Amino acid sequence: MAPLGRILIVDDEEPVCEVLGEYFATQGYAVETAGSGADALAVVARARPDLVLLDIRMPGLDGVETLRRIRALDGGVVVIMVTANEDVALARETLKIGAFDYVAKPFDFSYLDRAVAAAFLQAAGPAPARARPASAADEAWSGLARAVFHATRRMSGPARTATGARLEDAALAAAREAAGGHADAARQWLGQLALLVEIAADLGDLPAAERTAVEGALEATRRALAPAR
């Protein structure tokens, strides 16, 4: 069976690489590890991964500079930053220079699963699928994942854990149903996502700019699901 996609794990702590590597290998991904930013850049240049899990604090070439250089090498590689709790503010700043998301140690694996699933949507599917050009539908679902996850990253801690997690789950469920050809089920999930967006905005958990971005992405995915005429 072909792997779901290729993940590069970059961390100077070998136990972290081992734990994450084993976890994602059992999920069906092809996994490679690197112990430094320089090694990571060599892997990206040699064998392009679909996703990079990149530690933000490493000796020598740190995660922030490694991210910049990955973006320069290949702007299409999706990067999730891995951070300690005390570096969350720095991790948020990496979103401005091209990181898709960030996850904190110790890992919440259910949260990590959501982030990785959304990252593969952003990458428009695993490597074999990229043999064909991205369609308008691919772009729509990628845009929805990006809009939802960027919006939830701007929520406060409690809101992100509660409403934010539900927003992410609904977006991913809709994408899975659409990919499986289940348009009606996908529309139901999009309806739930729209309701959650409205509730989050009413509660003050979702700023106006983020709400506008998510609602625009929702409309694009609804158009992508509409039957051809």
List the helices and strands and how they pair.
Layout: E1 6-10, H1 14-26, E2 30-34, H2 37-46, E3 51-55, H3 63-73, E4 78-84, H4 88-94, E5 101-105, H5 109-122, H6 136-152, H7 157-179, H8 183-202, H9 208-225
Parallel strand pairs: 1-2, 1-3, 3-4, 4-5
Helix pairs in contact: 2-3, 5-6, 5-7, 6-7, 6-9, 7-8, 8-9
Folded structure, characterized:
The chain has two domains: 132 residues, Rossmann fold (3-Layer(aba) Sandwich), CATH 3.40.50; 97 residues, 23S rRNA-intervening sequence (de novo design (two linked rop proteins), Up-down Bundle). The chain has a five-stranded parallel β-sheet, with helices on both faces. The radius of gyration is 17 Å and the shape is globular. It is an alpha/beta fold. It is 58% helix and 12% strand. Helix 3 links the parallel strand 3 and strand 4. The chain has nine helices and five strands. About 4% of the residues have low confidence.
Radius of gyration: 17 Å
CATH architecture of the largest domain: 3-Layer(aba) Sandwich
Order of strands across the main sheet: 2-1-3-4-5
Q: Which H/E pattern describes the elements?
A: EHEHEHEHEHHHHH
Strand count: 5
Unreliable residue stretches: 125-133
Instruction: Give the oligomeric state.
Output: single chain
The percent of residues in helical segments reads 55-70%
CATH class division of the largest domain: Alpha Beta
Structural domain count: 2
CATH topology of the largest domain: Rossmann fold
Straight-line N-to-C gap = 37 Å
Overall mean pLDDT stands at 85
Q: Note the overall shape.
A: globular
Largest sheet entry: 5 strands, parallel
What's the CATH H-level homologous superfamily of the largest domain?
Response regulator
Strand content: 5-15%
Total count of helical runs of at least 4 residues: 9
Tell me the structural class.
alpha/beta
